[in-house]
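Technical annex B. To support the medicinal chemistry partners, we prepared a structural model of the target in complex with nickel (II) ion, based solely on the information shown next.
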Amino acid sequence: MANLDILTYPDKFLRKNTIPIENINGALQTIFDNMAATMYKAPGIGLAAPQVGIGQSFIIYDIMQQEEGHDLRVLVNPTIITREGEILSENEGCLSLPEFRADVKRAERVLVEGVDRDGNPLRFEAEGMHAVVIQHELDHLNGILFIDYVSALKRQMYNRKVKKEMKKQ
Ligand code: NI
Protein backbone atom coordinates (compact mmCIF):
# COMPACT_ATOMS: atom_id res chain seq x y z
CA MET A 1 0.00 0.00 0.00
CA ALA A 2 1.26 3.43 -0.91
CA ASN A 3 1.60 6.35 1.40
CA LEU A 4 -0.13 9.45 0.01
CA ASP A 5 0.87 13.08 0.44
CA ILE A 6 -1.44 15.02 2.74
CA LEU A 7 -2.20 18.57 1.60
CA THR A 8 -1.83 21.17 4.30
CA TYR A 9 -3.35 24.57 4.98
CA PRO A 10 -3.46 26.99 3.20
CA ASP A 11 -3.52 24.77 0.10
CA LYS A 12 -6.46 26.02 -2.00
CA PHE A 13 -7.55 22.51 -2.93
CA LEU A 14 -8.74 22.04 0.66
CA ARG A 15 -11.31 24.79 0.00
CA LYS A 16 -13.00 23.13 -2.97
CA ASN A 17 -16.35 21.39 -2.86
CA THR A 18 -16.34 17.71 -3.72
CA ILE A 19 -18.51 15.86 -6.22
CA PRO A 20 -20.47 12.69 -5.46
CA ILE A 21 -19.12 9.29 -6.47
CA GLU A 22 -21.28 7.47 -8.99
CA ASN A 23 -19.42 4.21 -9.28
CA ILE A 24 -17.28 2.40 -6.70
CA ASN A 25 -14.71 0.48 -8.71
CA GLY A 26 -11.43 -1.31 -8.04
CA ALA A 27 -9.38 1.85 -8.50
CA LEU A 28 -11.40 3.53 -5.77
CA GLN A 29 -10.96 0.52 -3.45
CA THR A 30 -7.19 0.92 -3.88
CA ILE A 31 -7.48 4.60 -2.99
CA PHE A 32 -9.44 3.71 0.18
CA ASP A 33 -6.66 1.30 1.20
CA ASN A 34 -3.89 3.78 0.44
CA MET A 35 -5.71 6.48 2.38
CA ALA A 36 -6.12 4.12 5.33
CA ALA A 37 -2.40 3.30 5.30
CA THR A 38 -1.65 7.04 5.15
CA MET A 39 -4.01 7.80 8.03
CA TYR A 40 -2.62 5.07 10.29
CA LYS A 41 0.94 6.09 9.54
CA ALA A 42 0.36 9.82 10.22
CA PRO A 43 -1.20 8.86 12.70
CA GLY A 44 -4.70 10.26 12.55
CA ILE A 45 -8.25 9.13 13.21
CA GLY A 46 -9.87 10.49 10.07
CA LEU A 47 -9.04 11.54 6.53
CA ALA A 48 -11.22 13.10 3.84
CA ALA A 49 -10.59 12.74 0.10
CA PRO A 50 -9.66 16.43 -0.51
CA GLN A 51 -6.81 16.08 2.01
CA VAL A 52 -5.04 13.76 -0.42
CA GLY A 53 -5.96 15.83 -3.48
CA ILE A 54 -9.10 13.95 -4.52
CA GLY A 55 -12.15 16.10 -5.26
CA GLN A 56 -14.73 13.42 -4.56
CA SER A 57 -17.15 12.85 -1.72
CA PHE A 58 -15.79 10.28 0.70
CA ILE A 59 -14.10 9.99 4.05
CA ILE A 60 -12.38 7.29 6.04
CA TYR A 61 -12.00 7.12 9.80
CA ASP A 62 -11.17 4.85 12.69
CA ILE A 63 -11.99 5.97 16.18
CA MET A 64 -10.78 2.81 17.90
CA GLN A 65 -7.73 3.10 20.09
CA GLN A 66 -4.93 1.32 18.26
CA GLU A 67 -4.24 -1.18 21.02
CA GLU A 68 -7.82 -2.44 20.63
CA GLY A 69 -7.24 -3.13 16.94
CA HIS A 70 -8.50 -1.45 13.79
CA ASP A 71 -12.07 -0.60 12.84
CA LEU A 72 -11.78 1.20 9.53
CA ARG A 73 -14.94 2.89 8.28
CA VAL A 74 -15.40 4.22 4.77
CA LEU A 75 -18.26 6.61 4.10
CA VAL A 76 -19.06 7.46 0.50
CA ASN A 77 -21.32 10.41 -0.40
CA PRO A 78 -22.12 11.03 3.27
CA THR A 79 -24.66 13.56 4.45
CA ILE A 80 -25.76 14.58 7.92
CA ILE A 81 -29.55 14.38 8.11
CA THR A 82 -30.04 15.73 11.65
CA ARG A 83 -27.87 17.22 14.38
CA GLU A 84 -28.81 17.19 18.05
CA GLY A 85 -27.32 18.55 21.24
CA GLU A 86 -23.99 20.23 21.74
CA ILE A 87 -20.60 18.94 22.82
CA LEU A 88 -17.22 20.62 23.19
CA SER A 89 -14.66 18.80 21.10
CA GLU A 90 -11.54 19.42 23.16
CA ASN A 91 -8.17 19.86 21.58
CA GLU A 92 -9.39 18.93 18.11
CA GLY A 93 -6.70 18.46 15.48
CA CYS A 94 -6.39 17.86 11.73
CA LEU A 95 -3.67 16.28 9.60
CA SER A 96 -3.96 19.25 7.22
CA LEU A 97 -3.28 21.74 10.04
CA PRO A 98 -0.05 20.52 11.63
CA GLU A 99 0.54 21.68 15.19
CA PHE A 100 -2.83 23.41 15.39
CA ARG A 101 -5.23 22.45 18.17
CA ALA A 102 -8.47 24.06 19.31
CA ASP A 103 -11.68 23.38 21.19
CA VAL A 104 -14.65 23.32 18.83
CA LYS A 105 -18.39 23.21 19.50
CA ARG A 106 -19.98 20.27 17.72
CA ALA A 107 -23.35 18.55 17.70
CA GLU A 108 -23.47 15.71 20.21
CA ARG A 109 -25.47 13.37 17.97
CA VAL A 110 -25.80 13.15 14.22
CA LEU A 111 -27.88 11.00 11.91
CA VAL A 112 -25.83 10.09 8.86
CA GLU A 113 -26.65 8.64 5.47
CA GLY A 114 -24.27 7.45 2.79
CA VAL A 115 -22.94 4.25 1.30
CA ASP A 116 -20.18 1.94 2.48
CA ARG A 117 -17.08 0.91 0.53
CA ASP A 118 -19.05 -1.81 -1.28
CA GLY A 119 -21.86 0.52 -2.28
CA ASN A 120 -24.38 -0.65 0.33
CA PRO A 121 -26.61 2.10 1.70
CA LEU A 122 -25.90 3.20 5.26
CA ARG A 123 -28.00 5.10 7.76
CA PHE A 124 -26.88 5.33 11.37
CA GLU A 125 -26.71 7.56 14.40
CA ALA A 126 -23.36 8.57 15.85
CA GLU A 127 -22.68 10.30 19.13
CA GLY A 128 -19.83 11.78 21.14
CA MET A 129 -16.39 11.26 19.64
CA HIS A 130 -17.86 9.33 16.70
CA ALA A 131 -20.18 12.26 15.88
CA VAL A 132 -17.31 14.75 16.19
CA VAL A 133 -15.11 12.87 13.72
CA ILE A 134 -17.93 12.60 11.21
CA GLN A 135 -18.69 16.33 11.44
CA HIS A 136 -15.01 17.23 11.09
CA GLU A 137 -14.46 14.98 8.06
CA LEU A 138 -17.70 15.96 6.34
CA ASP A 139 -16.70 19.61 6.64
CA HIS A 140 -13.64 18.77 4.53
CA LEU A 141 -15.97 17.62 1.74
CA ASN A 142 -17.43 21.14 1.69
CA GLY A 143 -14.14 23.01 1.84
CA ILE A 144 -14.48 23.80 5.53
CA LEU A 145 -11.57 23.47 7.96
CA PHE A 146 -11.94 23.55 11.73
CA ILE A 147 -9.69 26.61 11.89
CA ASP A 148 -12.71 28.46 10.41
CA TYR A 149 -14.49 28.03 13.77
CA VAL A 150 -11.82 29.55 16.03
CA SER A 151 -11.32 33.18 17.00
CA ALA A 152 -9.78 35.56 14.46
CA LEU A 153 -6.84 36.08 16.80
CA LYS A 154 -6.05 32.39 17.10
CA ARG A 155 -6.35 32.05 13.31
CA GLN A 156 -4.01 35.00 12.70
CA MET A 157 -1.41 33.52 15.02
CA TYR A 158 -1.48 30.25 13.11
CA ASN A 159 -1.38 32.07 9.76
CA ARG A 160 1.78 33.86 10.86
CA LYS A 161 3.36 30.60 11.95
CA VAL A 162 2.52 28.94 8.62
CA LYS A 163 3.96 31.87 6.65
CA LYS A 164 7.19 31.65 8.63
CA GLU A 165 7.45 27.92 7.95
CA MET A 166 6.85 28.47 4.22
CA LYS A 167 9.64 31.05 4.07
CA LYS A 168 12.07 28.59 5.63
CA GLN A 169 11.45 26.02 2.90
NI1 NI B 1 -9.19 17.35 9.20
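Notes passed to the chemistry partners:
The longest strand covers residues 73-84.
The mean pLDDT is 95.
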